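Pilot study result, target chain (138 residues):
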Amino acid sequence: MATVDSIWETVAFSRVLIMATALTVILRLGLSRPLFQWLRSVPVADRTTGSDTYRRIVRVTDTVLLLGRPAIRSECLARTCLLYYQMRRAGAHVDMRFGVSIASSEFKSHCWLISDEEPLYEPVDPRSSFRQMFDLNG
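Predicted structure:
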């Protein structure tokens, strides 16, 4: 018999897969401006979800992006857009930050989630390598 957790994981995986596929098409068509306008309108849900749920959202999203390669875009922009939407719908007060490299002469950019001015779910603090240029809602 399926457990609540396995049902949640299956539904979440399916939802993220559909969103990631649509996001790939949107980004390939160069429709980032309407995408960001839509993301700005995503409200923070009026509920508090625990950090375990947020970690599960990250785990499912990262799994979809890993298994979907190369058909599904998996770079930081896709990951951050997917997490931003899901986390806000789960009640997290998050924003997206965009920065450019300060560590090399080669142009590099990165985007990440923040909450209370701290990066979320990043293996290394991006602020050490990227200067913030703007945030989604700023």
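One observation from the pilot: The chain has four helices and four strands. A full batch analysis is planned for the follow-on phase.
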